[in-house]
Design goal:
The chain has 289 residues and is of the alpha/beta class. The chain contains ten helices and eight strands. The protein has an eight-stranded mixed beta sheet with strand order 1-2-4-3-5-6-7-8, sandwiched between helices. It starts with 19 loop residues before the first strand and ends with a helix.
């Protein structure tokens, strides 16, 4: 799996064939993939609940990497990364910071999706000099309405998916309309494009740890978002049933330097995947402004 850091750049690769590398972080190996130009501030991708490297939409990653250095990684104990998965968002954020510093970066941009957005908020607040800009998608603040229900929704969808032989992301990330279903099926097909050196699915103990972390985040006292001073772009679908879309509006209203992407119509938790072209265009404008 390992590819040395001095190996040829993956800048000409697409995400579906980008090599999987690893870096040691306090004795544990963190798996990651990197592509795009080697210069400029890197964009670190922070994945959703149960997500591994192969859960990022290649259309989003490839279009971002056409102009930005992009790095996706597996959280500790997840996928190809070793170690024990933390059961708090704060510990996951500390791991992400250690990973970023292990790669030698002193400034990064963050794109956090869902649980990754929780992690991004903690990093931005606790490491203001490390973080230049932040994109938050399908996420919400600590204590946001409905966030503590994410574990129950996820378990229900997973059990239903097992019975119906349907990927639970179809119902969790997309609306039940004809348009939402089409977008969901197209997204799931894109996730299959990588056929070699695929990542491992999350283990049950790691999944349980993440569920515990999300429930705790949802039951915490509301975050003091005014402490996050970096520019932040906020995006989501109109009908997010996992992290209710009102949380997106709340983030945009409370963050001092936020920009809200109008909520994507007929879209849910996976709105940035359903509207990948529009999202990446807006994200690049934000990052390059």
């Amino acid at each position: 799996m390992n590819t040395p850091r001095n190996s040829p750049s993956a800048s000409t690769s697409s995400y579906r064939n980008a090599p999987t590398r690893s870096v040691s972080v306090r004795g544990e190996d963190f798996a990651y993939r990197e592509l795009g130009p080697e210069d400029g501030v890197p964009l670190i991708l922070l994945i959703h609940l149960a997500g591994v490297l192969d859960n990022w939409d290649p259309r989003v990653v490839d279009r971002l990497a056409a102009r930005r250095r992009v790095i996706a990684f597996d959280n500790r104990g997840v996928g190809a990364s070793s170690g024990s998965t933390p059961d708090t968002i704060e510990a996951m954020a500390r791991d992400a910071v250690l990973f970023i510093r292990a790669l030698g970066f002193d400034q990064v941009d963050l794109l956090g999706l869902s649980m990754g957005g929780f992690i991004a908020q903690v990093i931005a607040e606790e490491e203001p000099r490390l973080v230049r800009k932040v994109i938050l998608a399908g996420t919400g603040p600590a204590g946001g309405p409905g966030i503590d229900k994410v574990p129950a929704l996820t378990i229900q969808a997973t059990l239903k998916g097992a019975l119906t032989r349907q990927d639970p992301k179809l119902s969790l990330f997309f609306t039940e309309t004809a348009g939402g279903r089409r977008a969901g099926r197209a997204f799931l097909e894109r996730l299959k494009e990588r056929t070699h050196n695929r990542d491992k699915d999350i283990s049950l103990p790691s999944f349980r740890a993440q569920l515990k972390a999300i429930k705790q985040w949802g039951r915490q006292a509301p975050s003091v978002l005014s402490n996050i001073r970096q520019p932040v772009l906020v995006a989501n679908g109109e009908h997010d049933r996992m992290v209710p879309s009102q949380n997106t509006l709340d983030l945009a209203a409370r963050l001092p330097q936020s920009e809200l992407v109008p909520l994507y119509p007929d879209a849910g938790h996976g709105g940035i995947f359903q509207y990948h072209d529009a999202f990446v265009t807006r994200a690049l404008e934000f990052l390059e402004s």
